[in-house]
Amino acid sequence: MIMLFLTCTLAMVYLQIHRDFHQVKLPYLFYFNTILLILSSLIFHKVKNNNFNLNNLISKCKKVLFLSILFLFLQSIAWIQLISDTVRLNSDRMSSFLFLLSGLHFAHVLGGIPFLLNYINKINALIKNKSTQNQVDYTLRFKLIRTYWYFLDFLWIYLIIFLYSMSNLL
After folding, report:
1. Is the dihedral of CA 136, 63, 108, 98 positive or negative?
2. What is the Cα–Cα distance from 36 to 165, expressed in whole angstroms?
3. 20 to 30 Å CA-CA from 93: which of 52, 71, 116, 129?
4. What confidence category does residue 48 fall into, taking pLDDT thresholds of 50, 70 and 90?
5. Which helix or strand (DSSP H or E) is residue 65 part of?
6. What does the alpha-carbon distance between residue 26 and residue 167 come to, in Å, rounded to a whole number?
7. What's the domain range around 120?
8. How large is the average pLDDT for residues 93-118?
9. Which of 78-82, 89-93, 103-107 has the highest mean pLDDT?
10. Angle at the Cα of 13 (from 152 to 10), degrees rounded to 5?
């Protein structure tokens, strides 16, 4: 995943050096979505590694799920704004890369949601059965999901900074 985004951003730099880009103003929703993703990371960060309160954990996971779905919804609206501003996938190379990079990130967030939902359902079942069995397994699963979300958040921040820089260096 890192190589995919790195390759795309390096291609953008190469094309920018050859002056093959037109300026594209990023929609304000891209910046607002950055705040949503940072909030989701902060929510996950507040979960203590050594002492899981399952009710607290499920509450935080649901908040992150809500923020992630809101991110996807607002990202769709941001694309609609771009299209209404005559920025289309085939307008020019900058527009194509903008849609490609934000679309790839969108797909990765969307792909993480089923895992988060599955985890929430398993924690609900654990709470319902009042079982402490396999709690270590659930702890590991949470850490993996949290790491994935941290990575997605970091990647989005990188993309926003990169796309902003590319749009304003022209």
Report:
1. negative
2. 21
3. 71
4. confident
5. helix 54-84
6. 8
7. 2-168
8. 89
9. 103-107
10. 50
**pLDDT score at 133:** 62
Question: How many residues in the chain?
Answer: 170
Q: For position 121, what pLDDT does the model report?
A: 92
Confidence of residue 114 (pLDDT cuts 50, 70, 90): very high
**CA angle (3, 75, 40) in 5-degree steps:** 75
CA distances (Å), 78 to each of 97, 99, 127, 157, in order?
15, 10, 39, 16
Residue-by-residue DSSP string for 33-47: HHHHHHHHHHHHHTS
Rounded to an integer, the average pLDDT of 84-111 is: 81
Instruction: Give, to the nearest 10 degrees, the angle between helix 54-84 and helix 93-129.
Output: 160
- Overall domain count for the chain: 1
Torsion of CA 113, 153, 159, 85, to 10 degrees: 60
Contact 10, 157 (CB under 8 A): no
